[in-house]
Amino acid sequence: MFIRMETNNKAEAIKAWMANHKKLETQGTLADHFNKSITSVNLALNKKMTTDGAERLVNEIYEYLVKKYKI
User: Which residues of the chain have pLDDT under 50?
Assistant: First the structure.
């Protein structure tokens, strides 16, 4: 788990949104968009990798989804 609870909540919100919108975004499309590996995206969203970079990635993904899809 991330140190900041807000980041944990964002990761959960991203996963929940993605589960209901598989045709719009997947971990693969997000990985491509942010030039990361699918494994990095998966580990960050599942809170298995909790480095500063992973936390930054979760926040960037969340901001991207908010801007693009108004989640």
Answer: none
pTM over 0.85: yes
Distance CA 7, CA 17 (A): 15
Q: What DSSP character marks residue 3? A: S
List all residues 6 or more positions away from 38 whose beta carbon is below 8 Å from its beta carbon. 27, 28, 31
Spatial distance between the Cα atoms of 36 and 52, rounded to a whole number of angstroms = 15
The CB density around residue 7, as the number of other CB atoms within 10 Å, is 21
Number of domains in the chain: 1
